[in-house]
Amino acid sequence: MEEEEPSDTEDSHQSSGITYVPKSSLKTPEAKTPEKMSSGGSSDKETVRVVQEVIRKEATQIIEPLLDNLSDDEFELLQSKSSLLIDVVAEEIAQIVEKAALLPVASRGLRSSASGRMMTQEPLNEQNSSSVKMATSEPKAAETEDQQTDSPVVANPEQYIKHPLQNRWALWYFKNDKSKSWTENLRLISKFDTVEDFWALYNHIQQPSKLGFGCDYCLFKDGIKPMWEDDRNKLGGRWLMTLNKQQRHNDLDRYWMETLLCLVGESFDEASEDVCGAVVNVRPKGDKIAIWTSNCQNREAIMTIGQNYKERLNLPIKAMIGYQSHDDTSSKSGSTTKNMYSV
Predict the structure, then answer these.
(1) pLDDT tens by residue, 147-198
(2) Strand order in the sheet with 216-221
(3) Beta strands 237-242 and 186-194: pairing type?
């Protein structure tokens, strides 16, 4: 099938066979506990080691897909600098942790501290907020002198409780490089299956309003590629919302975040089974956000998704969004596609 570049009027996700291979030589340097850091003082070595372990593990998981295009020299230089930075950050955090004896709480921000940016704490509902308190609160003990100790309480980072999602998701990025084919421009960024990992990824990528024209973000269930030809997509369609130029700065990022939360939070009840993923297209004439479903003939599920989606975005009653089948979109002769359903 002939590849087509993305245009203002057609967002053709075609061709398959893409395989992303991360940089095979990525190795985390062996942790070295600093004897004395410039920040002053010296922390318990075991605490420093635990903090370093968490930082290296989380930082490696986040940045590994981004290092594929670096030369060996650039990679070694970045690796050396990041190792030193991790040692410094680990020492500083360890000193704070020892005083508060709250390593599980501190670990929530470790992945962001490694890059010098503090992660925004994810919103929690009432159901899982109690679980977080159980995972992060200090154990209660009788206040007797015999039981009091000056030794810090160091928790195993593996004991930190993450909140699993119902599905595993994959984030894809399409860069509009006309010198490359469509499949070469589509890249897998990362996969996640917990609430914490979702927010870690979301807070470390650019917002859609900051992307260049012709670029896309695609969030799909693991195993489904963001293209019409995928077996889970070819009989389906999409709820499509088109934004004007003024909405790029006012609404685009908020609408996209709500769309992501609808997907990973399974906000459409049983109809969530029909959801394949979502796409945001950044285009000069108007940006687009769409939710893809697996079967364009499943009217009940499609309408449930469309009505709940419109309500979540808090769109005006008069505002209309339409559902189009992928088959109609791919074979359209004009600039518009007829809607099968609308809300």
Answers:
(1) 544 555 555 655 578 999 999 999 999 998 889 998 899 999 999 999 999 9
(2) 186-194, 164-174, 216-221, 275-281, 288-293, 237-242, 322-325, 341-342
(3) unpaired
Q: Dihedrals φ, ψ of 44, to 5°?
A: -60, 130
The DSSP secondary-structure symbol of 40 reads S
At 92, is the pLDDT very low, low, confident or very high (cuts 50, 70, 90)? Answer: confident
Which residue, among 231, 258, 255, has the nearest Cα to 243 in the 3D structure?
A: 255
249-268: average pLDDT: 96
Strand partners for 219: 171, 278
Q: Of the candidates 220, 222, 252, which has an alpha carbon nearest to the alpha carbon of residue 236?
A: 220
Beta-bridged to residue 218, according to DSSP, are 172, 279
Any idea what DSSP says for residue 6? Answer: -
User: Got the DSSP string for 85-154?
Assistant: HHHHHHHHHHHHHHHHT-HHHHGGGHHHHTTT-PPPPPP--HHHHHHHHHHHSPPP----TTT--SS---
User: Could you give the residue ranges of the DSSP H alpha helices within the chain?
Assistant: 45-63, 72-100, 103-106, 110-113, 126-136, 182-185, 195-202, 247, 253-264, 299-312, 326-330
Q: How far is CA 214 from CA 45, 93, 103, 175, 288, in A?
A: 50, 41, 43, 7, 11
Sign of the torsion angle spanned by Cα atoms 128, 171, 208, 330: negative
Which element (helix H / strand E) includes 222?
Answer: none
Please state whether beta strands 322-325 and 275-281 pair in parallel, antiparallel, or not at all (unpaired): unpaired
Q: Return d(Cα 331, Cα 8) in angstroms, integer.
A: 16
